[in-house]
Specification:
The complex is a heterodimer. Chain A is mostly beta strands. Chain A has strands at 4-7, 10-13, 19-25, 32-38, 45-51, 57-58, 67-73, 76-81, 90-98, 101-104, 108-112. In chain A, a hairpin with a 2-residue loop joins strand 7 and strand 8. The chains are: A mainly beta, B mainly beta.
């Protein structure tokens, strides 16, 4: 149990376009989901906390107008990278919280050309 | 959440026990020690957590010192598939915040 999926697993987009990443909890309901970003050879960095039905809370330095988060249901959160630039190329990972634990998705590799 | 310190890398021979240390000298009384690992290009995977007693599950054992200022994750019979970055994280049980990842320990299992 406690499986989290992400879609797509990888995506390549052109600079200036937007890309949406989905995070789903497959066998449990998650009132809270988290989005992380990981650059090559670095650790995961928390970007934002998303609670179902309310606005996301962004970490310092993360632009909320650039990284749009929607958490419309207890099993789905989406991250949209708007007007993507090459420096947004990264590994984006979500996690979903149930009870005391957080379970991570497999990650989405975004490459902006 | 308290800060943790881990060695940046370790090697271990396949079939031997891998012992990964973590220092968390500023841990608070209500904070647990969690271990996750991240295999290359995958999401982190939960391994084990504990408060003050030693814990064991099908993946690993966690040994926490009596003063709780440090802990050791033990993989009893390491395999090549255990090569990963291992993260030691201190957090409150039930905390609603995201996790703070340090640099972790890159464990390399040698054949």
């Amino acid at each position: 149990g406690a499986v989290v999926s992400q879609h797509p697993s990888w995506v390549i987009c052109k600079s200036g376009t937007s890309v949406k990443i989905e995070c789903r909890s497959l066998d449990f309901q998650a009132t809270t989901m988290f989005w992380y970003r990981q650059f090559p050879k670095q650790s995961l960095m928390l970007m934002a906390t998303s609670n179902e039905g309310s606005k996301a809370t962004y970490e310092q330095g993360v632009e909320k107008d650039k990284f749009l988060i929607n958490h419309a249901s207890l099993t789905l959160s989406t991250l949209t990278v708007t007007s993507a630039h090459p420096e947004d190329s990264s590994f984006y990972i979500c996690s979903a919280r149930t009870g005391d634990e957080q379970y991570f998705g497999p990650g989405t590799r975004l490459t902006v050309t | 959440d308290a800060k943790t310190t881990q060695p940046p890398s370790m090697d271990c021979a396949e079939g031997r026990a891998a012992n990964l240390p973590c220092n968390h000298s500023t841990i608070s009384g209500n904070e647990y020690v969690y271990w996750y690992r991240q295999i290359h290009s995958q999401g982190p995977q939960y391994i084990i957590h504990g408060l003050k007693n030693n814990e064991t599950n099908e993946m690993a054992s966690l040994i926490i010192t009596e003063d709780r200022k440090s802990s050791t994750l033990i993989l009893p019979h390491a395999t090549l598939r255990d090569t990963a970055v291992y993260y030691c994280i201190v957090r409150r049980l039930g905390g609603a915040d995201g996790l703070t990842f340090g640099k972790g320990t890159h464990l390399i299992i040698q054949p």
